[in-house]
Write a structure and sequence with these properties.
heterodimer, A: D-Maltodextrin-Binding Protein, domain 2, 2 domains, 10 strands, 16% strand, B: mainly alpha, MetI-like fold, 2 strands, 1% strand, globular, disordered N terminus
């Protein structure tokens, strides 16, 4: 072998060594596939590592991780799957890539409606789907329920994000659970007829549109208000609206969760359960509330000052499993009323 | 009855094998389509599918118009005319290529929306109070998406048509002038038809990028097939149904590729004459020079200068938040991964293109064409297509090793950088193949025959004859693939190893939450890295001509 080809061979060997995965199931790690954005959960993971010395490895993506887990099968390095809504959690369970966890602390920390009766998924934070209304153009009390959004008196005055987005689909699914498919269909058609513009942008963009005078009311997740109030450019948007917790006289405000599930193949099961317990504990729950203004699921964990300023409210106690069940139907309803076009 | 003598042709075997491996992820998609969790077709066909198809067609039509007008006009002007700043425009036309479409979309929304500087200034000047007082075009719309994609994708057409114009023999143009054609007639009757294969190839690339885009259409809420794929997959939990829509999209791509190949087949020109001396230049003066200047300035300004200014100003304002030690690591990841993928893609492309040339045959042709379909599959769907064969391979090896040796090898390839690299090659092979094919096509078969007469085998012929001749074209392929890899997002997100980020994933983290300010430094990084090949590229194109004219 002459020198250049030997160098080439060495380079090739190095390259192969670099590419071949070294096992991620060594001591003291836990591997997470996360649908949640890094900046929201990294602080919690860092706190966990400081406390336990267990390193948290993460892959973040907004799609495809369940499929990756499914294909990797029994050899998958992933221990936990973290999601930003109930839909993705139940998808993982249905794909058969999760396993049940029976842990007394988890059950004590997380109220029953925010976890799977079969112990596969656990909610970690909850978020309220609230209505925001223009301070200038909507009298306080003029709108008080999701049903009102479909009332013809709001024609041309409502903004929402895409009807196919997980948060909107979950709300529609809750409407199906409460009123049945036919009524929910009618409601969604009414809401669509009231829209001021084609659904676009995220929840923040709807508040911005109210400030700009494009519309007068919108439906958003509550924590976006906190995020906007704390951003120098966006504080003005938040200041232009009043917050309404819908359906206080009836079944309460629609809630969703961000959550976690243990994978079926979890190579670091003990560490993974430690992390689950940590995330449901006081410290992490409080961090969630302070950083992203989400409601802690654990009862008794103090709310951040901002959450307190929103006031107490009646949350819908409809089980999230029930919401998840109607998701596909809800998504199809959005197609049927041509919500996004 | 005599035995048919069966000889294995090494080129044919190699070409087929490579094509097969690259095609694996693409084959996985029809496979997925066969097993949907629920038959979603009746629902889709009766509700949203017709809309998806029409919107996609309208988008493609709009973008073709945009990229052809801007790309061909600027290529013709800088190649055949002389006017102020022409030399700058020659390379500057490539700049928008470095900017990902989703970034321009964010930047222009920021500028043109209600609270943006443009509308704010208008309100101040005219004393309007709210959105109800005046009309302003809505950027988040189909026309908006067409505009965004056109201004960053036209360089594909520019690049290929300019190369074609440059390569046109002076003799032909002279002949046309002698036969009484003016500059316009020469353009429409000689140059344009001769450049048509290249122009069509450029437009096909731009359209495939268009089909694939998810960032822009998602942000602008334009209901294309790609958006539909993601919807069925993510909201209805039905990846099989999503794969079925992806199949509809593949029909679009097949149509595009056929058009491109047809236009090439009917116009087979080999550069016989080596007379590549300085092209006759039309010296423009006065208003005409001004018009040419503006025509070249507008696309560059829209696709590069304005977005760059916005990104730079945000980067400065948010520098402390963005400039972290991690940032350099992400940049390094992007650079190494993209250059590796670009080289690999071009090597694969050369094997396929040359294999097709020497081994020929319908089978090879079809296999090679099929292998390049990856370009049109939405990145996230392709990522799933990569995971399937990789994971099956890993798990099969693991099972075998457990069975025979009692050791577990776990996942060897899945979740590694190699899987990512492979995905990039599959995804961008069409570009590398396009450049390899079109460069090879210009080498007259007489050369091959001459070399073979001189007792060189196909391999020696390739290294001694073809490679030196097609170097320039192949380099273009490497660079375009590099830039595309730097921008690649959806497949990277899904396939990457633990704790691994690239500039694109870093940008996306913020941009997806509509926090473009914080993403700016990363976006600027992608643009800057994209500039390196753009500079090299422009030098190469000019240099090829200059050295040959000596």
């Amino acid at each position: 072998m002459n020198t250049p080809s030997r160098t080439l061979a060495a380079a090739a060997a190095a390259l192969i060594a670099a590419f071949v995965a070294f096992p991620a199931h060594s001591q003291g790690v836990v591997n997470v596939y996360s649908y949640r954005q890094p900046f929201l959960i990294t602080p919690m993971f860092e706190a966990f590592t400081r406390e336990t010395g267990i390193k948290v490895n993460v892959v973040h993506a907004k799609k495809g991780l369940i499929e990756r887990l499914e294909q990797e099968g029994a050899n998958s390095p992933a221990d936990l799957i973290v999601t930003a809504d109930i839909g993705r959690l139940t998808d993982a369970v249905q794909a058969g890539v999760t396993q049940a966890v029976t842990n007394a602390t988890l059950e004590a920390n997380i109220p029953a409606q925010y976890r799977d009766p079969e112990h596969h998924w656990f909610g970690l934070t909850s978020r309220a789907r609230i209505i925001v209304a223009s301070k200038d153009r909507v009298a306080p009390g003029a709108i008080s329920s999701y049903e009102d959004l479909a009332d013809p008196k709001w024609k041309g005055r409502v903004c929402t994000r895409s009807g196919k987005h997980a948060y909107m689909v979950a709300l529609t699914a809750a409407m199906i659970a409460h009123h049945g498919e036919a009524k929910a269909h009618e409601w969604l058609r009414g809401l669509k007829a009231n829209l001021a513009r084609r659904p676009q942008g995220n929840d923040r963009a709807q508040v911005k549109a109210i400030m700009e005078g494009v519309c007068d009311v919108a439906v958003i997740n509550h924590y976006y208000m906190g995020n906007m109030m704390n951003d120098k450019n966006q504080a003005a948007w938040a200041a232009s609206v009043n917050i309404v917790f819908p359906n206080q006289q009836t079944y309460g405000t629609h809630m969703n969760v961000s959550g976690i599930a243990l994978t079926k193949s979890a190579p670091n099961k003990d560490n993974a359960i430690k992390l689950m317990v940590f995330l449901s504990g006081d410290r992490a729950q409080q961090l969630y509330a302070e950083q992203n203004f989400e409601y802690p699921v654990k009862p008794g964990v103090p709310w951040s000052a901002l959450l307190q300023s929103f006031g107490a409210y009646k949350a819908d106690d409809l089980g999230l499993g029930e919401v998840a069940k109607h998701r596909k139907t809800a998504s199809k309803l959005a197609d049927k009323v041509a919500f996004d076009t | 009855m005599s035995l048919v003598k069966f000889r294995i042709n090494p080129w044919m075997t190699a070409t087929l094998l490579v094509a097969l491996v690259v095609a694996l992820p693409i084959v996985s998609i029809p496979w997925l389509a066969l097993f949907p969790r629920e038959n979603i077709w009746p629902h889709l066909a009766s509700t949203v599918l017709p809309g998806y198809v029409l919107t996609t067609l309208a988008l493609m039509l709009g973008v073709s118009f945009g990229v052809l007008t801007m790309g061909v006009t600027s290529a013709w002007l800088v190649t055949m005319c002389r006017f102020p700043a022409r030399r700058v425009f020659e390379w500057a036309q490539l700049l928008p290529m470095a900017v990902p479409a989703y970034v321009v979309a964010y930047v222009y929304t920021d500028l043109l929306e209600y609270a943006g500087p443009v509308q704010s200034a208008l309100r101040l000047v005219f004393g309007w109070q709210s959105a109800a007082d005046y009309w302003f075009p809505e950027i988040r719309s189909l026309p908006g998406a067409i505009a965004m994609m056109s201004i960053v994708l036209y360089p594909y057409v520019y690049l290929l048509s300019r190369a074609a114009f440059l390569e046109q023999s002076v003799g032909l143009l002279d002949a046309s002038r002698i036969l009484g054609c003016g500059p316009w007639a020469t353009f429409f009757r000689v140059s344009l038809p001769m450049a048509r294969p290249s122009i069509a190839a450029g437009a096909a690339l731009a359209l495939m990028e268009t089909l694939n885009d998810i960032g822009t259409v998602d942000f602008f809420a334009v209901q294309t097939l790609t958006l539909g794929i993601y919807d069925v997959w993510l909201n209805m939990g039905n990846i099989g149904g999503a794969a079925q829509i992806a199949m509809v999209m593949l029909l679009f791509v097949a149509a595009l590729l056929t058009i491109e190949r047809q236009s090439r087949r009917r116009h087979r020109h080999y550069q016989i004459s080596g007379r590549l001396k300085e092209l006759p230049a039309h010296r423009l003066r006065g208003a005409r020079a001004g018009l040419a200047f503006v025509a070249c300035l507008m696309p560059v300004a829209a696709g590069f200068v304005i977005p760059a200014i916005v990104l730079v100003s945000y980067s400065i304002r948010y520098f402390d938040e963005s400039w972290t030690p991690d940032f350099l690591r992400y940049a390094l990841n992007s650079l190494t991964l993209s250059s590796g993928a670009a080289l690999a893609a071009v090597c694969v492309a050369l094997v396929l293109a040359y294999g097709r040339r020497v081994a020929g045959g319908k089978l090879i042709g079809a296999a090679v064409n099929f292998a390049s379909f990856g370009y049109a599959v939405p990145g996230a769907v392709l990522a799933i297509g990569v995971i399937i064969p990789f994971a099956s391979f890993d798990n099969a090896v693991d099972a075998f090793m457990r069975d025979r040796l009692g050791i577990s090898t776990g996942l060897l390839l899945s979740g590694t950088v190699f899987a990512l690299l492979f995905a990039y090659v599959v995804r961008f092979l069409a570009i590398a193949l396009g450049s390899a094919d079109s460069s090879l096509a210009k080498v007259t078969p007489a050369m091959d025959m001459a070399a073979r007469t001189l007792a060189h085998g196909p391999l020696a012929t390739f290294f001694k004859v073809h490679l030196p001749l097609i170097r320039g074209g192949v380099l273009i392929g490497v660079l375009v693939v590099f830039v595309d890899c730097m921008k690649e997002l959806p497949a990277t997100l899904i396939l990457r190893p633990f704790n691994f980020d690239t500039l694109a994933t870093y940008v996306y983290q913020f941009a997806s939450d509509e926090l473009i300010e914080k993403a700016s430094l990363g976006a600027l990084g992608i643009v800057l890295a994209g500039l390196i090949p753009v500079v090299v590229l422009s030098r190469v194109i000019t240099a090829t001509r200059e050295t040959q004219t000596v």
